[in-house]
Amino acid sequence: MLDQYAKTALQLATIAATEANNKLNSDRGKIIGETNFIYTHPLLLVPATSVVSANINIGSDADFDNYSLMAACYDTAGVNISSPYLLVQIVDQTTGRAVFSEGTIFSLMAGSGSLPFILNAIRQFKARSSVSITYQNLAATNYYLQTAFNGTKVSYESK
Amino acid sequence: MARYGIVNSSDQTDVIAPQDILINPITQGLNRDEVLARLTDREAYVYNTRFLVSNLAARYTAPKEVPQNANFWFSNITAFAKNPLTGADNQLFRGILSIIDLETGNRPIQVPLWALRTSAGQLRRTFWPLPYVIRAGQTFQIELENNINYAAAGNVDIFINVEGWHDYSI
Fold this sequence. Notes:
The structure holds two protein chains of two kinds.
Chain A: H1 2-24, E1 31-40, E2 44-46, E3 51-57, E4 63-74, E5 86-92, E6 97-98, E7 104-105, H2 106-109, E8 117-125, E9 130-137, E10 143-156
Antiparallel strand pairs in A: 1-10, 2-10, 3-9, 4-8, 4-10, 5-6, 5-7, 5-9
Chain B: E1 2-7, E2 14-21, H1 32-37, E3 42-53, E4 59-65, E5 71-82, E6 96-101, E7 109-112, E8 132-134, E9 139-145, E10 156-167
Antiparallel strand pairs in B: 1-2, 3-10, 4-9, 5-8, 5-10, 6-7, 6-9
């Protein structure tokens, strides 16, 4: 009897989740293709005590579901800096939505870059979106920065 | 209703004063599947703050307002400390961090900062099997108290991230 209750509860939960997913994807048609992909920007010089932004343009071929963030920092000699004194903010310029409520310290986003920051939920960037990554260098030394978005290109049947 | 606290066994002083463990009004009564079913129309988000801690026995607060059209769910909290003069990591700071749900008065977490400090940001600390939720339009507060066993000299630049997602299915 308990098993039956558990099954019913699971079925109800599955139906609710499906309905919610349908709502989430109401502006999308049926998924026709998914490709793992990493968006990144070229290594960027962020001079001491300055603010510099990079842009990542999402391709026109597919929306991008971002699962995790990766980033690396180097000094001018090419040595990896795992904990630079530097703030990072990421903003989807198309929707105006930021990932952080304010700039976050690099180490809480990326650490050494060898392990990704797995987001608690996906962050979806629409095709042709422009995403800015703003670095605020709080240190007295120059840094080179690179951030990458790890995720999946998702293509839909047109509705 | 339950209570918890942490006591320093060497001198019997309170590290965390005994307090009530309260139940989140939204997750109360729901089973795991029902809660998970509510987590579909979501977008990753991090509420974060920065405190420049400069004096003893002080309390620092940062209110965070959740938008009207989404609930905010979280279970990961991370923290990092820097020396603002040199930019070097600071591992000595021993403040107490609290998250306070200002709608209910709940304090879903109160924890020593060292328990949150990540190893170069590579470890995420999840505190609950299910996330806590701040309801749309409500405000929660990140609070840092640095009056316990403060051992670091000079200022400390503290960064705190509350990692979760906005749920737009409401």
